[in-house]
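Table S2 (continued). Query chain:
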Amino acid sequence: MTEIGVFTPEEFYGAEIGGLPPAIMGANRMLEEAGYQFDIIDSQSDFSRYRVLVLPDNIPVSEEFAEKLDKYVADGGAIIASFESGLNEDKSAFSVKSFGIRLKGEAPYSPDFILPQGEIGKGLPETEHVMYMRGLEVEAEQGAEVLAYAVVPYFNRTWEHFCSHRHTPSSGKIGYPGVLKNGSVIYFMHPIFTQYNQNAPRWCKQLFVNALNILLPDPLIKHNGPSTMLVTLNEQEQQNRWVLHLLHYIPERRSQEIDTIEDIIPLYNIKVSVKSPCKVKEVMCVPEGKPLDFNMNGDRVEFVVPKVNGHQMVAIITH
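Corresponding output:
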């Protein structure tokens, strides 16, 4: 069961030797750590299956692709895009009208900073957060709003000006739009997904999750477990049953070449809420067959999983 479609750069640039493109890896990690249910898709996929589409960092958009995306938004869909995603194939302008932004060019400063505010800044202190990778300078068209601004440093690091840290300190001056919203489309000027794959700044993930909360306030699954717990929801239609998988295995880099899972760290009393279009008859831990108390809160079934010892399945049986 999925509700988010994530475009892969592989469709446009081919596979990379030695692994997947950094942007799709960063998006995959963010979504898994936040408990969202998603598919990796391409421009030929059926967009209507998804409530939100994500275009991570460098998804070029042809005229035909742009028409399909604009129709998806007009029909009630939502989009999150970042950096060069949405640009035409020669990267001279944004081809998706529903983005509501115009390209000015490469951002004049890097690293620069994002100043989180309001809904997009929820869970982050209202101070400058460094963005290590250079973004694009864009401006909002009529009707679009700026959710967060980029703050510029005192100077770029060149042979003329140097700071010994990874970035020059903030000047405190607003430079240009950092995160913009046009209806049901949110755009980030920085390559936040590639950045997260490289060194995982928590604020990049938090900004993305906040954007999802704005566009998708009622996701399929909500839980109070840690970001190290993975959740997947499967449907068994003939049995009128959904099966929720909860996994908690933490890999560690104990060697130079591979990650290792050695210890199982159990979790207790995990609160789970699942969006259900049908009335729920029973919830139980399987294969143990242990029934769980549950209650319906509107269109959501809520219950507590007493223990996740590495892996726990929960069957949600509907009428």
